[in-house]
Amino acid sequence: MTTVRVEAPARLHMGMLDASGEGARRFGGLGVAVTRPAAIVEASPSDELSAEGPDAERARAVAERCRALLGAAGGARLRVLEAIPPHAGLGSGTKLALAVTAALAALDGQSPDPAAMAHMAGRGARSAVGLWTFALGGLVVEGGRRRGVDGPAPLLTRHAMPDEWRCVLAVPAAEAGLSGGAEEAAFADLRPDPARSAEIAHIVLTALLPALVERDLAEFGAALTRLQRLVGDAFAPVQGGTFHPRAAPLVEALLRLGAAGAGQSSWGPAVYGIVGSEQEGAELARRLAPEVGPGGSAEVVAFDNRGARVEAA
Q: What are 274's strand-pairing partners?
């Protein structure tokens, strides 16, 4: 390939199985890929390594690491055509890093597996939800990282989302969710709660996943809402409540206005509501817009069941 184009869908992180990270495996989690927003990267051969576009500095830093680990000769020109809004809870850093890595690997004629991709991209140290939604799309559940073992958490299950279901994704103009050192400190402050972790696992295995298999939107939504509140309660001491302060009223608004289930993605402030059709989603987004307020957004997005696309541009 002379030019490679990679389009990586954003992800909604729906929660951790063991938020305290005190078990034999740390964290675990689940999430789903959505078509928009997306990280879109193009790479072409060049004498030097360069990057341009939104998040260009981050893309170049990933590229330097990736080229060294690939053992690739020469340079590359990277163009970030589109980036996922940073620190909104949509997986911007992971999806950009994996998109850059996939583009450079394809440019060099290589097709690394997901674990190798994560290593080259420098991602997956805590959650592998971003990795598995990048690789496969759909809804994924990962089992957490065993202590002292390198590599991303294993994929436990992946299931396609029903084609007709939609997500109303709202991102208010608000202070960014935790990241970097603040995020590390937040996880360090968490305390074990075996009863809550057991209830989260029970909901995932006996309500959320069975409802998805049977395409039962009402049961899926109720399970998701309950799951999100349990996960949010675990992080309440460090984020000022069950949800990000700006996200909390939007979650309630989504449910009040008709979403089958709703929650906050990662640290927020992005929130989402699940509905059964494009038409329902459009109506919900229209009614939610005044609640989101100036500078924010509310849009209907489809779930992505394909994962990242790597192709010649």
A: 167, 261
Would you list the DSSP string of 78-93? EEEEE-PPTTSSS-HH
Using alpha carbons only, how large is the chain's radius of gyration in Å?
Answer: 19
Alpha-helix runs per DSSP H in 14-143: 56-70, 92-107, 114-121, 129-136
Would you state the pLDDT for residue 194? 85
Indicate the pLDDT class of residue 178, thresholds 50, 70 and 90: low
**For 101-155, how does the pLDDT look when each residue is reduced to its tens digit (9 = 90+)?**
999 999 999 999 999 999 999 997 778 999 999 999 999 999 998 887 888 999 9
Buried b (16+ CB within 10 A) or exposed e, 283-292: bbbebbeebb
Nearest alpha carbon to residue 265 among 67, 41, 34: 34
User: Three-state SS for 44?
Assistant: strand
Which of 225, 172, 176 shows the shortest CA–CA distance to 200?
225
pLDDT band at 188 (very low <50, low <70, confident <90, very high): low
Q: Strand 166-171 and strand 75-82: pairing?
A: unpaired
pLDDT of residue 85: 94
Rounded to 5 degrees, φ, ψ at 93 are -65, -45
Among 65, 80, 56, 66, which residue's Cα sits nearest to residue 108? 66
Structure tokens at 129: 């939800």
* Residue 224: partners with Cβ closer than 8 Å, 6 or more residues away: 14, 208, 261, 262, 263, 274
